Structures are given as C-alpha cells and as structure tokens.
Amino acid sequence: MAAQTQYEELARQLSAVGAVKRDLGRILPADCSSGSAAVLALLGRHGDMRMSNLSELLAVDMSVTSRHVAHLAERGWIDRSPDPADKRSRILRLTPEGAAMLAELSRRSAGLLAERLGDWTDDEVGQLIRLMTRLRASFGECRTVPHRPPPPAPEKTQTTRTPSQAT
User: Fold this and answer.
1) What is the dihedral of CA 96, 99, 101, 107, to 10 degrees?
2) Per-residue pLDDT of the chain (167 residues; tens, 9 = 90+)
3) 67-105 burial, b for 16+ CB within 10 Å, e for fewer?
4) What does the DSSP 8-state code read for residue 163?
5) What pTM was estimated for this model as a whole?
6) 56 with 39: CB under 8 angstroms?
C-alpha cells in the first residue's frame, strides 16, 4: 500500500486535472458548453435514455439537466420524445446532427491532446490510459456517499482496584 505522502501528492496532482479540463473546454464551439458536451458524450456512450437517468449520470439536479437538454434540443443535436412506458417522462436520443457534433468534439479533444502530449511516447500515453481507466474503476460511478473516516474509538476508562478488590 502506498504511503500517506504519496496519496497527498496524488491528490495535488489530480487537482491539476482541472487545468487540463479547462483547456479542453476552451476548444469547444461557442454554442456548446462543457455541460452540453457531457450530455452529448453520455448519450453517445449509453444510447437513448430518460432525463432522470441522464441527470443521475451527470450527478446534477434535474433542473440543470433540463437546461442542458433544452439547449441541445434548440440546436437540433438531441431529440426528446415521450417515453412509451411513462408519458410524463421523455426519452432523449442523439440526432444525426448531434452525432456529428459529438464527432467534432472528439476530433478537437484528440487534436489538443495530441498537441500537448506530442513529446510522450505511445507507451507513455498507453500507460496513462490504463492507469486512468483503473483509477476510474476504483471510484466506480462516483455516486457514493463521501467517505468519512470512522469515529475515533471511545477511550477506555481505567479502573483501579484497591487491594481488597483484587482478592
């Protein structure tokens, strides 16, 4: 098992992933926010789904999901249709235009990564992919309750015996 200092350094390095994500966000088209890109990616990966499933996968409130969905529907990138099993619910699916946008987002992201990691070997990129895949698997879907350390054990109270009690 790694030492505590290694986990502390890992936490510092993982915070830098935010900078990478921000840089990737800068290459998105003006009318496609990172939230919209996440919705397109999830629909591309998982296929048609209900809004409630999408909200769960995004780990955001339904109102936030609704805003993203409305934005994408206005651009023709997704289609919302009534759920045959529950008419109150909507099924979301990528349109051909949405699939084309998703392909463009993938192309842009891959291009930026190729540019920034151009001095890495294929083996190094492969190792990063394997390790990040393993890291992600260790965290599952990241929908668990935050881990809290167990409360400290109650202090044992010392009882002293008098010589008459010891017999």
Assistant:
1) -140
2) 778 999 999 999 998 888 899 999 999 999 999 999 999 999 999 999 999 999 999 989 999 999 999 999 999 999 999 988 888 888 999 999 999 999 999 999 999 999 999 999 999 999 999 999 999 899 886 554 444 555 565 555 555 555 555 54
3) ebbebbbebebbbeeebeeeeeebbbebbeebeebbeeb
4) T
5) 0.75
6) no
